[in-house]
Amino acid sequence: KAEQGPVAPERYIEELFGQDETLERALAGIRTEGMPEISVAPGYGRLLTLLVRLSGAREVLEIGALGGYSGICLARGLPEGGRITSLELLEPYAAVARRHMTEAGFGERVDYIIGDAKESLARLEAEGRRFGFFFIDADKEGYPFYLDMALRLARPGAVIAADNVLLRGRTADPNRVGPSVVAMREFNERIATDERLDATILPAYDGLALAVVKQSE
Ligand code: SAM
């Protein structure tokens, strides 16, 4: 009998958890629409579901919807009656995301706000909205502003998660000085030092920043 070599860890894990037909359909939809194939990875999506569940948040704010893949994962962690608000620059992307969320059974629990997230966030603040969980996954230059706004819109104890904070190694490379890298360094420094936050950065995937807004004493 031929001896089998080791299986790559990612493949081992995905085989263990098996196919997720809802998420596979969303990925196929994103591909068919010719949208960028930059949704979070399956294991990352499972982590988002767990984080929302652990946070106990009833109101989730996502910045950067794309085709709804991470939206489905976030919504899966919500309690009954919980809602997700998702900010997306491009209307056609939000339409695809809405379709996928509806197919996943979350159509009634998501609101898409179309346009530049910076403006949408200012509007949410003016409306006095508050959220218990934030997932930041849009334009990288906006990250410091998104962190500011998350802090203003956060309930005490809210969780802030942000994707791609290592920018495939560029954030930690002193020779890189482009605007995304500079913005991401500022974001990470604030995540690490802001006294209102307990935080860490996981070097998994492309770097996942995680922070909890401290309850005021
Ligand atoms: N979170 C999605 C997922 O994993 O399924 C992927 C999001 S994708 C990496 C980034 C998204 O942010 C794109 O859909 C893009 O159109 C959107 N975006 C970029 N700049 C934005 C802005 N200024 N305001 C709102 N959305 C923006």
Structure description:
The protein starts with 8 loop residues before the first helix and ends with a strand. It has a seven-stranded mixed β-sheet with strand order 3-2-1-4-5-7-6, with helices on both faces. It has 217 residues and is of the alpha/beta class. It is globular, with a radius of gyration of 18 Å. It is 42% helix and 20% strand. It has one domain: Rossmann fold (3-Layer(aba) Sandwich), CATH 3.40.50. A hairpin with a 5-residue loop joins strand 6 (197-202) and strand 7 (208-213). The model has no long low-confidence stretch (mean pLDDT 96). The chain binds S-adenosylmethionine (SAM). S-adenosylmethionine (SAM) is lined by residues 38-40, 64-66, 69-70, 87-90, 93, 116-117, 137-139, 142. S-adenosylmethionine binds at residues 38-40, 64-66, 69-70, 87-90, 93, 116-117, 137-139, 142. Keywords: Methyltransferase, S-adenosyl-L-methionine, Transferase.
Broad CATH class: Alpha Beta
Compute the separation of the termini in Å.
65 Å
| Strand neighbour order, sheet with most strands | 3-2-1-4-5-7-6
Query: Sheet with the most strands?
Result: 7 strands, mixed
Annotation field: number of helices: 8
Oligomer state of the chains in this structure: single chain
Number of domains: 1
Rg over CA atoms: 18 Å
Mean pLDDT score = 96
**Pattern of helices and strands:** HHHEHEHEHEHEHEE
Beta-strand content bin: 15-25%
CATH fold node name: Rossmann fold
Please report the total strand number as a whole number: 7
